[in-house]
């Protein structure tokens, strides 16, 4: 790919299946008599950035792949502006304009099958429906960072259900303290255009506890919701345990958070104990102590912190601390182990990733053609996804089984890899976006009543007609 030196992009984007019920609007279930002509369609709950696809039962001759279809094959109620393309010899994709799919809207759709293949009059129009997922967001706060005993840094993650622009997040986010300090929150983007990090540094500690209120107003994103959370900033000269929680990264363990940096010159053996474990390691990181251990054969642990523990000023803990934590199964997750850009000029293109409580993951490769690269980069950093529906096309999709060999314990984090050189041929000048996702059916997590909801789908998750028909049909 030295032609114009645009590297192959492995975007660290993990698309998780979302589950929700349809509203009172009735879903259109296509008749099974269309099975000879149509294999699958976009139905159920979809994302605001999804495309709408029809997969025919047979290959079609004399079509031009990735060329706009001039005939009006799709119609929607409410109407959706966009264009249709042949993406394979049997798949047609309607690409809505950016922002055309409205959050929470139910759509009824018609596909003019009779304009594509020869059918009798009753099969000329294929009726189906779908609903766009409601836009939403959430904020996850990290434990407070305390390096300088007089100052606190508050950090966290903001997650959206849809792609949003960084400048909008910056405008919608605010922070204030109960003693009216001048704060300068910093919002940064990540490899995922739905996830942002916030940081509020140099919060001055006082002689008494003060409150930090963080707020995100959803109005800027057309979301009828305002998030507000109050965090307590501990007083000066108070050495105590703030919290303790289980962690899974970079390894399984427990993180104990203190109100003051912990001394690194003391022997923590006997000061921090876990009776259920015979072997574990301890690591001091400023105002945190991380304990790493093997989860095998343990369903709960009791963490005890002795009053003799000292901070960097030699002051001892105000009160002893004890907490019992249940080691519940990790929820299904998949993560790429590398992010950034990889130049595809080697024989092996190994994509490392890890997963937990999953028997399989879905791999998708989206190709941004050389002719569209400049348009794409005008709206994106190299690892971005804005305008991806217009600039790129899905060129590969496969379900990767993770339960072989059977010796792997799926309930713990396991490392895997995929050799992309065996499944794709790189085109000079093109950009390739790699996505890993999973469906509810792949989960090995113990979950009751998991079949009561409909799964949200993106452009590659289609609903087979046969499986959507009641037995009475």
Strands side by side in the biggest sheet: 2-32-4-10-9-6
Count of DSSP-assigned helices? 3
Q: How much is the radius of gyration in Å?
A: 26 Å
Calculate the mean pLDDT score and round it.
81
The total of beta strands comes to 33
Straight-line distance between termini: 53 Å
The percent range for helix content is under 10%
- Portion of residues in beta strands equals 35-45%
Low-pLDDT runs? 1-25, 340-345, 448-460, 466-473
Major β-sheet, in short? 6 strands, mixed
Please state the overall shape, judged from the principal axes of the Cα atoms: elongated
> Structural class from helices and strands?
mainly beta
Would you write up a description of this structure?
By secondary structure, the protein is mainly beta. Among the domains are: 8-15 and 332-454; 19-132, Immunoglobulin-like; 249-329, Immunoglobulin-like (Sandwich). The protein has 3 helices and 33 strands. It has helices at residues 166-172, 373-379, 388-391; strands spanning 8-16, 19-20, 38-41, 44-46, 52-56, 74-77, 82-86, 91-96, 106-111, 126-132, 137-141, 151-160, 173-177, 186-189, 195-204, 210-217, 226-233, 241-247, 253-258, 272-273, 281-285, 288-292, 300-305, 321-326, 333-336, 340-342, 350-356, 360-368, 392-401, 414-419, 431-438, 454-457, 463-464. The strands form 8 sheets. It has a 6-stranded mixed β-sheet with strand order 2-32-4-10-9-6, with no helix packed on it. A 5-stranded mixed β-sheet has the order 26-1-31-28-29. A 5-stranded antiparallel β-sheet has the order 7-8-5-3-33, with no helix packed on it. A hairpin with a 2-residue loop joins strand 21 (281-285) and strand 22 (288-292). The longest helix has 7 residues, at 166-172. The radius of gyration is 26 Å and the shape is elongated. The N and C termini lie far apart (53 Å). 29% of the residues are buried. Residues 1-25, 340-345, 448-460 and 466-473 have low confidence and may be disordered.
